[in-house]
Design brief:
264 residues, alpha/beta, six-stranded mixed beta sheet, 9 helices, 46% helix, 17% strand, extended
């Protein structure tokens, strides 16, 4: 019951719901046009929740919405948690997109124009702006751009009122959980309702929630294990008798003597 209620109450700022809504080509294209002030011809979904993993031992990433439009690539991300690493994440995402765009030995000129877009429910740079757009330019002459085809754009829904563009302001207002009279926002909201009525997607979401809970539990158990090992090792270094260490482990972690003894 709790999980069903959670599904029904999801808003566009939920990354799972956002990705499903963006599967509507018309809505996704219009959003890109409104956010970036460009014209979009025909977007192609490279893969929903795209995973890019260049090497078996490399750090893989998952992208909420990963699409192409001719010679351009767009990565749209909904971000609700400020982990203080968005600058580095955007850099990593952009690099991985480039590696995924061209094959080994191909000319660098085949790299596509790329946009990494974060729609945040917080202000990532604490300047009160509703939008922050970054391109590479020369430090000695800011009029000189590198023109490498890379753009990183961060939207701040919390300060939506500061958006200069009306359409962007209304969309960010909606992301912030407030109602909007914008026709486009109403279209998005209608699509949200349709997504929520999809039983298959609801089941997919519930499965993801369960898996995430399992992963968190596994992480807690692993952390607990490492904590006990660290405590035992530290006490040994201090010359504490084994029996005393055993008693402390039992007392602190509520373990039986048999279970605690494996850490000695």
């Amino acid at each position: 019951m709790v999980r069903e209620k959670a599904w029904e109450e999801l808003q566009i700022k939920n990354d799972f719901l956002f990705a499903k809504v963006m599967r509507d080509k018309k809505i996704c294209s219009e959003l890109l046009e409104k956010l970036l002030h460009i014209k979009v011809q025909n977007i192609v979904y490279l893969e929903e929740d795209k995973k890019i993993d260049i090497k078996w031992d490399a750090k893989s990433i998952r992208m909420d919405v990963y699409i192409e439009d001719g010679n351009r690539v767009f990565n749209l991300e909904m971000q609700t948690t400020d982990k203080k690493d968005l600058s580095f994440r955007s850099r990593y995402y952009q690099g991985m997109i480039d590696l995924n765009t061209i094959e080994k030995g191909e000319s660098y000129r085949r790299l596509k124009e790329s946009y990494v877009i974060f729609i945040c429910t917080f202000d990532p740079f604490h300047q009160g702006k509703a939008q922050y757009t970054f391109e590479n330019f020369c430090t000695e002459d800011r009029r000189l751009k590198l023109n490498d085809g890379m753009k990183k754009v961060f939207f701040n829904a919390k300060d939506y009122e500061n958006a200069e563009d009306d359409e962007i302001r209304e969309f960010l207002k909606y992301v912030n959980g407030e109602k909007s009279d914008s026709q486009f926002v109403r279209e998005i909201d209608d699509r949200v309702s349709k997504v929520k009525s999809n039983k298959e997607w609801r089941q997919e979401y519930m499965t993801l929630l369960m898996r995430e809970a399992e992963i968190r539990e596994e992480g807690r158990e692993e952390g607990r294990e490492e904590g006990i090992k660290g405590m035992a090792a530290a006490l040994k270094e201090l010359g504490v008798p084994s029996q005393t260490i055993l008693s402390k482990i039992q007392e602190k972690f509520g373990m039986s003597q048999e279970s605690a003894s494996k850490y000695l």
